[in-house]
Fold:
Amino acid sequence: MPVSTLKEVVDRAFAERYGVPAINIVNDLTMEAVLAGAVEARSPVIVQTSVKTVKSLGSNVLASMWASMTAGIEVPVVLHLDHCPDRAVITECLDRGWNSVLFDASVLPVEENQRQTIEVVREARAHGAHVEGEIEAITGVEDGIGSDTASARQDLEVALRFIEETGVDVFAPAIGNAHGVYTHEPVLDFQRVSDIVGEHPIPIALHGGSGMTQAQFSDLIRRGCAKVNISTALKITFMKSSLSFLTEAQARDKWDPPALFAHVHHDVAALTRDLAVQFGSAGKA
Structure:
């Protein structure tokens, strides 16, 4: 099966009301493990890279990893650039083969955000790629992008005008969600998703998914959240899995890097499988 497009993956999820895991990877091991977990679950998956990861590993390296790991893959997969305010990085990634980008101009006035998003959509279309847009910053700092200060929410009319004028394929509204670790169960504005979808049927991206309850996921997916972002949960799984293995290795004074990699791979793949089941995408490939 060839690499899919964002629109193909999320449009079906939106129509059938399930969520597709959109998971931020941090290196080759996590990319391979996320893809393996999706294959085991027979689930579509959106592999996401932050700007920090792109700059750390290099777009050429990431693109080569992606091409190698997805050759002949049996489930729909998408490579997405997450929360990118830098137009040059968007161009670089589109040129290297990313087929989906989130242009994050949420710190700009809505009018300027809209103007530039129209340009990004035009650029992406020339590459056969798709675009996620947002007009409000999601609370929390993720890989150096964002703010811990909640941004003001725009009126429904402003959101609808942005969606219609820009032609974005996915929209990410602020609904009380946040990046990072929740200190308590988040209070979410479920109705805002319904209001947007009711006026303009468009797949919604749910950011800050790590730490939400199953009831919250299920409710939001039923309302139209077709893309469910997971970043913090992968980082925690990656670090804790590594820590537990290394703690045991130290106690036994036995040092086996390939075994460490296999241990972490297993846990990250299991996380991906569990998310696919949780969001209803398992078996949809």
Notes: The mean pLDDT is 92. The CA atoms of residues 75 and 285 lie 5 Å apart. The chain has one domain: 6-279.
